[in-house]
Structures are given as C-alpha cells and as structure tokens.
Amino acid sequence: MTADNWSFVFAAYGLAVVVIVTYWRFLVRRERELSEGDTLRRHGSGMPEPQAEQRSP
Amino acid sequence: MKRLLGAVTVVGLVVGLVMAFGIAPREATQGNVQRIMYLHVPSVWVAYLAFAVVLVASIAYLARRSEGADRLAHASAEVGVLFTGLTIATGSIWGKPTWGTWWTWDARLTTVSILFVMYLGYLLLRGMIDDRERGARFAAVLGIVAAFNIPLVHFSVYWWRTLHQPPSLMKPGPSTMPGVIVAALLVNFAAFTLLYVYFVTRRARVLRLEAEAEA
Fold this sequence. Notes:
heterodimer, A: mainly alpha, 1 helix, 0% strand, B: mainly alpha, 7 helices
C-alpha cells in the first residue's frame, strides 16, 4: 500500500481553485470597467442605451 | 443566460468534487494522490478543446474576416493556455510522489510544454501588433499551424517510449478502469467543459467591449 500524499492532492486542487477564481475575477472586473466606460461614452454622445439582451459575445 | 451558465458550471464543479473525493474509491496502486487525475485529465481535455476551437475559428476568420471568429479564437486561446498551464502544474504535483520527480523531459511532458509555449506566443503576437486586422490575420495563421501540435501531444505516448502512461479514457475501445472512476472522470469532463464555455463567452464579450472602446 502506498502513502496517501494528501498534501499533494490539496496543493493541486488549491492551485486550481486559485487560478480559476483569479481568472474569473479578472473577467468580471474588466467587463464591469468596460461596461461603465461604454455607458459614460453613450451618455456623452447622446446615443441610446442598448438592451442587455441585445449584446452577445 | 450568463448567470444561468455560471450557476450550472458551479453546480457541475461541486458535483465533480463530490465525485472525486466522496464517491470515487481510493486507487489501490497510487493511493489518494490518484484523485489529482479528476483535475489533471479534464484540464488537458479543455486545453485540447480550446485549441481545436482556435483552429476552426482561425480558418473561419481567414475565410470570412469575421471579427466574431477572431474574438472566439482569441478568447479560446487564452482559456486554453490557462488550462494547459494547470495541466502541467497538476501533472508535476502528481509526478513528485508517483514518479519521484517534479519534471522529466519525457515525450508527453515535452510536447505539452511546446504546446503551451506556442499558444503563449500566439497571445504575445496578438498583443504586439497594433494594427488589429493585421494582428488577427497573423494570429489566425499561427492558430492553424500550432494546432498540428495537438495530435503530437496526444499520440506522443504511443510514438515514443515514455514515462507518462498512455491515455486511459481518451482512446478507442472500452475503458479498463472501474465504472465509478470513469463516472467521476466524465462528470469532471462535463463540469470543465461548462467552465470552458463560461470563460470563453465572458472573455469574448470583454474583447468585444475593448474593441468598441478603442473604436
């Protein structure tokens, strides 16, 4: 029977959680910054606000 | 829709964790360190999927000059690089207690590292060229060329004598693994695929907003 090496298991899963959450937070923050900038530009130019549903990636 | 996809992805990942730690048994030969495979194998699956999407979107961009295809290729490459990095890191963490080393210049490890560097170069190339159309065109060509490395990575364990074991699941024919281990792997494959779709959708939207802000 081999050693369980739980520390390696937790290190791998911990690293994955950090990487995935960090990337998700980057996407959310960047999207919010750009959406706010987009809203400000539309207000400045007098353009109508687009409906959220009309936007697609 | 975005929130729904996010919620389904989180549920999928939680179920995947329950399968990996609660349902799947302790592997007889490797012990509990084998549970890293429920993270490592789906990560490389997402990397393959992401780079295959880069290939298709790059061809579509060159054929139609569609900005949507370019954004999809860019987003997918970024997510692919993220998951290739995760594959290498988790494989290394698994390798230390199993092989006795963090790293070896084995054919599979070397080819996957080349894959990682090639797509890192793809992202750097996009960032280096100011002319958006020119950058997209060059990146599309690199996205097509780099995809030739994917079969090289996958079949390296058959073509060369390697320390890395051959595929247990992504191969023709029935699996030799116990059903519960296969089920845990498949649930994590599904959860990671959802995570890929969620990340690419959000990244492509960010890229579109960036393009609009620059215009």
